[in-house]
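Morning F.,

Quick status update on the modeling queue. The single chain you submitted on Monday has been processed. Sequence for confirmation:
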Amino acid sequence: MKTQQPRISAFTSEQARLAFSATYESTLDRLWPARTTSDVSTDYGTTRAVLDGESRTVAPFVMLPGAGGNSLM
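Structure tokens below.
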């Protein structure tokens, strides 16, 4: 059985986390307004997949986060 690891946060305060989250969601809304999300369980934890509901005819692609960043960078 896997043990639960402590969560690591890059945010110095709750205010910083909320500001980042608002900007992140705003950017997603602008880039992918018809998106859905799906949380996928893996051996390494849960990851979130963002699915664009309008791009049925476009080849799928994967955005990977850079070191210390997120997939919007």
